[in-house]
Structure formats: structure tokens, C-alpha cells
Amino acid sequence: YIHIINKADMAASKGLKILVGCKRVIDYAVKVRVKPDRSGVVTEGVKHSMNPFDEIAVEEAVRMKEKKLAGEAVAISVGPPQSQETLRTALAMGIDRAIHVEIPLAQLEKLQPIHVSKLLAKVCESEKPDLVILGKQAIDDDCNQTGQMLAALLDWPQATFASKIEPSQDSKQLRVTREVDGGMETIDVSVPAVVTSDLRLNEPRYATLPNIMKAKKKPLAKMSPDQLGVDLQPRQEVISVEDPPVRKAGAKVESVEDLVGKLREKGLVK
Amino acid sequence: FQASRAASLLPQLLLRRRPASAGAFALLARPASSASGGLPPLTTEIHPGIKRGAFSQLTDADVSAFEAIVGGDHVIKDADEVLSYNIDWLRICRGQGQLVLRPKTTEEVSAIVRHCNKRRLAVVPQGGNTGLVGGSVPLFDEIVISTSRMNSLLSIDPVSGVLVAEAGCVLEQLDREAASQGLMMPLDLGAKGSCQIGGNLATNAGGLRLLRYGSLRGTTLGLEAVLPTGQVLDCLTTLRKDNTGYDIKQLLIGSEGTLGIITKAAILCPARPKSVQLAFLGLDSFQAVLDTYRLARRSLGEILSAFEFIDSESMRAVKQNLGLSCPLGEHSFYVLAETSGSNETHDREKLDGFIESVMSMDGCATDGTVAQDAGQFAHLWSLRERIVESLLVDGYEYKYDVSLPLADIYRLVEHMRTRLDGRVIRTAGYGHLGDGNLHLNFTTPKFDAKVLELIEPHVFDWVRDRRGSVSAEHGLGLKKSQYIRHSKADFAVRVMAEVKRLLDPNGIMNPYKVLPDE
């Protein structure tokens, strides 16, 4: 599957069509607890919100619209019924419409990036975006795979860990600055392409009240994995989930003399 | 909020959003006061009219006696160390206490107080030292009795919600412990990272959620205290209902350490809400603030847990002095409306209804946002919780905390702003609108007696004339004891003096505070 767009000057065209991925995850500030049967973590009744990197992706798409680099921004989420709330947040930030690929509860826990990337690839076939922006990784599984797998499935170029996205010098491509171990790497990618967002790409905006109200009326389409013809057979089995080892308690001392004494005891001070 | 995942990620995320509620007071860098090389002036210089009471002088024999009670390590005599216990959080007071004692148990407190009573030595009980009326530090050479080492959580009953703790437990830590049992402390204030529950009780602290959970007078089921004679008063019941005799603990709650030292408390903790939502609105008139409040009570009713207002001057202070960013444009007023409930879907629906009403009501909120995640939630709250800190950066802060009929709240701010025009850096008004409680602050680069003269007693007279309270929640301490009759009838004050005489015949317990000197 190859999708070629008219490589006209990007600034003059009606703008890129952007597809943004949003995942509903446990809120980053929540203290995560492992289920007593060690099969996973407790999600029932726990505060969830949009994956922070996806918020950054949504923000980037909205900014590109504001800069007239993009014409339409569509948000997509693969998840349970509550993922609709995540999509409403994206809509409230300025996304035009949303797509929810609803996953039945039974299959949710076994969902892996390989499945998500296949679902996204199928949606790309019909939506034909010029740019897909995903968060670089989800803070619940830290996989950092979906963007890369999606690019491979579509045979599109990928620019991961983006900290800046702008038109290239000749305006025919995208110039992406990437955060890599050695520093920053700048590459030009042709569209369509997959980009994944890193922390420093932008600071997401607050959803304003008028936009929160408008978001309720924006289109939100529902799809199922069956309709998209993707098999969600799990490829991995989670054997157990455990807490990291408990930090051993330190000893509190009441005075400087005590401290010196203890340091001597442990042979750390002569 | 306890952050624990993706540890490498988190510090960066926190830096971005700058959530500041966790231990805000503990972390802030307090600006040096301008007078005398960075130290505040001696309180006795600011109030030369107050004379030292007929108390004994501290002797070596006394120090040895204290060392025998708490151990040499917990008797602080070193001048540099003792200094910090003599200066209040606002840095407007500096006492001349020579000695700080740090007992670990009620028995030690009792022995100390018994000795001081016998010897007629004046004492000041001190918890987190975050009080705002100079009530927690010495004036002359009073001995500081610190409850900081009495910091054990004794029990939490997840069924009844009763938490029993020693007085030196820090509020934020108690809240964390409560959270592990699905409970929460019934009060919350900006000083939570440093203030101790004993001090909260002694000052009947109010805070951000009094609107929803009520005052400590209702949520404290029992307490244990050491009276000025050294006797231990054990009223530490965990019963919800106990109508057997006079409720003496109510005398101690709000007594600001003048009737005894609270050593343990039993608090009724509400269930921790599963869903907390926050709306932040920009409005252009105080009438709009009042209309929004009425709407909030009608549409959010039982889930409303906080309703705070901030004026443009206060917002300017947090932006300029602390560099915090406000997601809304410039408005005359800002409102924080928080809901706490057991069901996120229901609460979001109610909040949506409230927002729709607010936006369609003429002259109501024109601009606003709803926090979408914990980071935004913490950041928006920091815009309110860090106002005090931001004002301190200006230099010297004159702080007032009054209760007034709702319609008069901002009239006072505008009146004083006009009165002090050109003499102060700013006049900031904000507060617990839902409780009718205004926090009114003025700032100057350094202490200016002429400015103080323009403010006091005028501001108190204005409040008295509208039958308000000259101290809604901060207490009287040292700074407002002379104004008690502005809000209490003379006979009531005399009855209070009788109670004080009864419980503290030698007057050693936190003298010069709360009741006027006569």
C-alpha cells in the first residue's frame, strides 16, 4: 500500500491531513497498585487520562492547523468505551473529528502494539492521512513500538522522538528534529510519514470552555476490529506483574553523634 | 498526589506543569526581611507597649531539669539553632527565646509544663510554625516547646474513618496515610507540607475545603492535651457521638496554644473522592463571581468541594513573582470551582451542566478551562495556593483575613486599594468565597509604619461596622489580640479571661497572645 500525494509546495496546498493517536492510560500522577493475583495492575476506579505524549501529539496537530500547515486533524483511539472521553479531550483541544476503535473488555488486557499498529494501518487505508503523529510511547507499557510498527506496515518513512516539526527548506518535505542519545538529529522525511512526539515538542494547551462545549458536537465515529478485519489474537502472555522490590527502610538518627556513630559502625567512616 | 511511574519521565513532566501543591511551604525560599541585615526586627521593637510578664528567668538548674526529662540532645540552647524557632513564617516577628525543648511523649510534655508552672516560666507551644498572626513564636524569653518529634500516626480505622495521631504529625503526611485507606483528611491548606495537626487544631484551621467538610470543630472527635498546670487532659475518644458533660475539647480547639498543649487528636476522615474535577474561570466583575457561586451551589450542590476567588492583582503577583503561567487571558477575577464525588461520569455531567449555565448566563464567565489531568489540576490549584508566597517576594506583607457578608467582600478591597494608592506595591484580594472569607494583603518593599497606621485600625473598624469577623481563620495570635472586641462582645471577652485564669493560673501558656493584656 503506497499513498502518494501531490508534492506541491506544502504552504500553498490546502494543508496536510493529520491523524493523531491518543491512548487512555492511568493518570501519570496516580500511585499504581498491583492486583493481588499479580495478573496486572488495578484499573477499576482509578483516574485515567490521555497519555502525556499523545497530548503533545494532539497539541502539535492543532498548532500545525493554526499555522495552516495542516487542513484537517483527526484523532483516533483504540480502547474501551471510556476512550471516548480521551477523544473528547482531543476534540476540546482543537481536533476536528474523532474515530474510536472499540475493543471489548475481554481483549483489552491482551492488546499489544502489533495489534494497534495493524488497526491504525487499516484506518490509514481509508482515511489517507498525510501525516500520522503518535506519542513516542505510552506511560503504562513504555513499549515505544506502535509508531515504528505502523510505519513499517505502511512502508512510510518514520521520524521518531520528534522535538520539532517544520516544513523542509524546499517546503516539499517535513524537517523533523529528533532527540537521540547523542543529542539532536535533524532529518527530512517525505510525506506521508509517521512521526512520534517526544517531551520537548511542545507544551499542550488547556482546553477552554467554549471548545469543551463545541467538542460535544464534533463527529465521533465508532469502529470495531472486526469491521477493520484485524485479528486481535494475543502474541504474548503476561505471566505475572509484581511490585518492584521494596526499598529497605533507612534508620533515622536523632543527633549528629548518632549519625557519626552509625557511619562508623558500617565502616563508612574511620 | 503521589507520582510513581516512569520515574525517568516524571521529573520532566513535573517541571513542565510545575505542580506546586506538594509541600509548597516546605520548598519555598523565604525572602530575607530587609531590616537589620536580613533578620526581621525584634517583635518588642515593633510593639514597645507590651511589657514582659512577671515570669521567672531561666536558670541552669531549669536547663538541667529539662535535660533530665527529654535528654540532652533535645534541649536546644545554641543561639543559631534557637533563632529559627523565634521567627515566624511571614518573617514579621522575632522573639528572644533562649531555649527550645523537643519532647517525644505526652509524659515528657507534662513533666516540662509542670516544672514551668511551678517555676513560673513562660512557654510557647510550637508545631510547624506556619501561623500567620505571630502566635507561635516567643515575644520575650518564653521557652519554645516543639511538638515536631511527636509525629507518630497511632491508628486509622478504615471502617469508621477515624484517624488518631500525635500532634506533631505533618498534615500532608497524614493525608497520604489516610489515602492508603481510601480516606482523606477533612482539611487542606497551602501550608500542608509543614503544618502539624496539633497546630491546625489549636488554630481551628479552615482552609480550602471547609466549604465541603466543615471545620475542625465538627471533625475532631477527641483530643489529649497537657494543661498549663502540667496535668494531662484525656478527652481522646474516637466516638462519633458522646454527649456526656461539657465538651472541653472545644475550648482547646482554636485556643491558639493559650489554654494547653494538644498532644494527640482523633479526627473523623471522610472517604477519599473517586472523582475530583476542577473548573477555572475568568470573570470580569465581582457580581459575576457571586452569580457564578450561586450557580455552582445550584448545579453542583452536593459535590462542590471548593470555591475560591482570585483578583487580578493576586494573579499578577503569582505570574510576576513566581513565573507561573495562567492559561486564561487577563480578567478582573478568577474562580476555582472544585467538585469531589464518588462517580466520575455523574460528576462530569454535573460539571458540564454547570459550565453550560455559566457560559449562557449574561455577564458570567467568559473564559475558562477544566483540568484534563492531574498535572493541570495541580497547576491550576498552585495559582491560588502560592499567592501568599508570591506576595512575600515583594518584600513585606501586611496580611488580613476577614469574614464579611458576600456582597461586601470586594468593596473592602476596592476601598483599601484607594486608601493606600501610591503607598503600597499592591493590594491583593482573594479567598474562600464560599465561606465569606476574604484574604486581603498589602505589600511594600520593607516594613513601613505609616502604611500600617493607614491600614490599622481602619480595616478592622470597617469590618466591625458590617458585623464581620476581624479574623476569619488565622486567629488572633499576637497581631490581632487588641482587636478582639471588634468581633466579640465585651462580656464574652471577660468570660474568656475567666476561663484562661481557671486553666492557667500563672499565665505561663503562650502569654501576650489571643486575649488583650489587661
Protein topology:
The complex is a heterodimer of chains A (270) and B (518).
Chain A: E1 16-21, E2 24-26, E3 48-50, H1 52-66, E4 70-79, H2 83-93, E5 97-102, H3 105-108, H4 113-127, E6 131-135, H5 146-154, E7 158-167, E8 174-180, E9 183-189, E10 193-197, H6 209-215, E11 220-223, H7 225-228, H8 256-265
Parallel strand pairs in A: 1-4, 1-6, 4-5, 5-11, 6-10, 7-10
Antiparallel strand pairs in A: 2-3, 7-8, 8-9
Helix pairs in contact in A: 2-6, 4-5
Chain B: H1 10-17, H2 24-27, H3 43-46, H4 60-70, E1 75-76, H5 79-86, E2 100-101, H6 106-119, E3 123-126, E4 143-146, E5 153-156, E6 162-166, H7 171-180, H8 197-202, H9 210-213, H10 216-219, E7 220-226, E8 232-235, H11 249-252, E9 261-268, E10 275-283, H12 286-299, E11 304-311, H13 312-322, E12 333-341, H14 344-360, E13 367-370, H15 374-385, H16 387-392, E14 396-403, H17 409-419, E15 426-432, E16 437-444, H18 449-455, H19 458-465, H20 490-503
Helix pairs in contact in B: 4-6, 12-14
Region (Disordered) (chain A): 228-247
Main location (chain A): mitochondrion
Keywords (chain A): Electron transport, Transport
What does this structure look like?
Chain A: Heterodimer composed of ETFA and ETFB. Identified in a complex that contains ETFA, ETFB and ETFRF1. Interacts with ACADM. The complex is a heterodimer of chains A (270) and B (518). By secondary structure, chain A is an alpha/beta fold. Chain A has a single domain (13-245), classed as Rossmann fold, CATH 3.40.50.620. In chain A, 28% of the residues lie in helices and 24% in strands. Chain A is built from eight helices and eleven strands. In chain A, a hairpin with a 2-residue loop joins strand 8 and strand 9 (183-189). Chain A is globular and about 75 Å long. The relative contact order of chain A is 0.17. With 518 residues, chain B is of the alpha+beta class. Chain B has helices at 10-17, 24-27, 43-46, 60-70, 79-86, 106-119, 171-180, 197-202, 210-213, 216-219, 249-252, 286-299, 312-322, 344-360, 374-385, 387-392, 409-419, 449-455, 458-465, 490-503; strands at 75-76, 100-101, 123-126, 143-146, 153-156, 162-166, 220-226, 232-235, 261-268, 275-283, 304-311, 333-341, 367-370, 396-403, 426-432, 437-444. In chain B, the strands form three sheets. A seven-stranded antiparallel sheet of chain B has the order 13-10-12-11-15-16-14, sandwiched between helices. A five-stranded antiparallel sheet of chain B has the order 5-6-9-7-8. Chain B has a four-stranded mixed sheet with strand order 1-2-4-3. Chain B starts with 9 loop residues before the first helix and ends in a 15-residue tail after the last helix. The model of chain B is unreliable at 1-36 (pLDDT under 50). Chains A and B meet through helix 2 and helix 6 of A and helix 1, strand 10, helix 14, strand 13 and helix 15 of B.
